[in-house]
Design a protein that fits this description.
The protein has about 350 residues and is of the alpha+beta class. Helices cover about 40% and strands about 20% of the residues. It has two domains: about 190 residues, Ribosomal Protein S5, domain 2, CATH 3.30.230; about 160 residues, 2-Layer Sandwich (Alpha-Beta Plaits), CATH 3.30.70.890. A five-stranded mixed β-sheet has the order 1-3-6-4-5, sandwiched between helices. The protein has a four-stranded antiparallel β-sheet with strand order 10-11-9-12. A hairpin with a 5-residue loop joins strand 7 and strand 8. The two termini are about 20 Å apart. It binds alpha-D-galactopyranose (GLA). Alpha-D-galactopyranose binds next to helix 5.
Length: about 350
């Protein structure tokens, strides 16, 4: 990365940092409802090298696109990859960072449109590099919060905090159990004798599309109808009142409430090493995303069915939905994957690599 930066800008970078992609085991669309999530980092990395640049400007190169772009630091978002980087520079400046101008080189092997959060990896890597360059006194939780602020406030995608938190604080091979209300978190061992497999359906996912935003506002409408600050305040005991809400707010809320419960039950299952129960919760989670939250697609439902048919203990859509990946809990990916692939020619194994 230093070499790429030097080649592009004839200077040595002031800082180089990297951050990983993620998959989520359980707890989907709960983070913007103050709920529980259980993601894990994936071994795909985005690397950012940066240093001083021309005053008032950002000049950035993305190796994967072979593209260099230059923009004013105070420019509005343009709807491209540079928005994520500039958004991070701007939040760092709002926090008091003295940036006159910046040059950036980016490299990444995180698959795009897979729903494994190439955006959070880029934000966290950028903020880590800015922290190192400018000596910013921000901890890893603040890095995550600033990344989310850049994405929701500047890029314009009203995401929760899960992706940035796991990219900033996760440990490979462990699950991060996170309470998105308090930001308390705990690392948990993954099931022994089983492996996670992440499979791209072949259908690209785009979160900037309206579906995510619409789900989020439905949750807000449901919370206000039930006079709670967020859907996190509700529990399965509230289901009679929840189901009295109009369609689809009733089903949206039931998903969030039962999904929060599944994360807690899943954590208990992991702690006692019960992979079978964990798999069962993944299957329930998928049904809830499909039937109540309506974020799945027929191709993804079929892939989940095939994954289970060939022996997965559990399988579900992971990430924001409307395309992207499934995550499955399997005994041996090496023997499981060929059987699944034979039935889904467009699918790709993302993890294990
Ligand atoms: C996207 C968002 C996250 C989260 C998931 C759904 O990945 O960035 O904040 O809401 O969708 O669980």
């Amino acid at each position: 990365m230093s070499a790429l930066f030097s080649e592009l800008f004839a200077a040595i970078p002031a800082a180089v940092a990297r951050a990983p992609a993620r998959a989520n085991l359980l707890g989907e669309h709960t983070d913007y409802n103050d709920g529980f999530v259980l993601p894990t980092p994936l071994p795909y990395l985005t690397t950012v090298a940066l240093g001083p640049g021309p005053a008032g400007m950002i000049e950035a190169h993305a190796a994967r696109f072979g593209e260099t772009k230059t923009r004013a630091l105070d420019a509005p978002p343009a709807g491209d990859w540079l928005d994520y980087v500039l958004g991070c520079v701007r939040v760092a400046m709002q926090e008091g960072a003295a940036v006159e101008g910046v040059r950036v080189a980016i490299d990444s092997d995180v698959p795009m449109g897979a729903g494994i959060s190439s955006s959070a990896a880029l934000e966290v890597a950028t903020l880590r590099a800015l922290r190192e360059w400018l000596g910013l006194e921000i901890d890893d939780v603040q890095v995550a919060k600033l990344g989310q602020r850049a994405e929701s406030g500047y890029v314009g995608m009203p995401c929760g905090i899960m992706d940035q938190m796991v990219s900033s604080l996760g440990t490979p091979g462990q699950a991060l159990f996170l309470d998105t209300r308090s930001l308390e978190y705990r690392l948990l061992a993954l099931p022994a004798n089983h492996a996670l497999a992440v499979v791209h359906s072949g259908v690209a996912h785009r979160l900037t599309d309206g579906g995510y935003r619409q789900r989020r506002s439905e949750c807000e409408a449901a919370a206000s109808a039930l006079t709670v600050k967020s859907l996190r305040e509700l529990d399965v005991a509230d289901l009679p009142a929840i189901m009295a809400l109009p369609e689809p707010l009733n089903r949206r809320t039931r998903h969030v409430v039962t999904e929060n419960r599944r994360v807690l039950d899943g954590v208990a299952a992991l702690e006692r090493g019960d992979a079978v129960e964990f798999g069962r919760l993944m299957v329930e989670s998928h049904a809830s995303q499909r039937d109540d939250y309506n974020v799945s697609l027929p191709e993804i439902d079929a892939l989940v069915e095939t994954a289970l048919k060939h022996g997965a203990l559990g399988a579900r859509l992971t990430g924001g939905g409307f395309g992207g990946c499934i995550i499955a809990l399997v005994e041996d990916p090496a023997s499981w994957w060929p059987a699944v692939a034979a039935e889904h020619p467009a699918a790709r194994l993302v993890y294990p690599r």
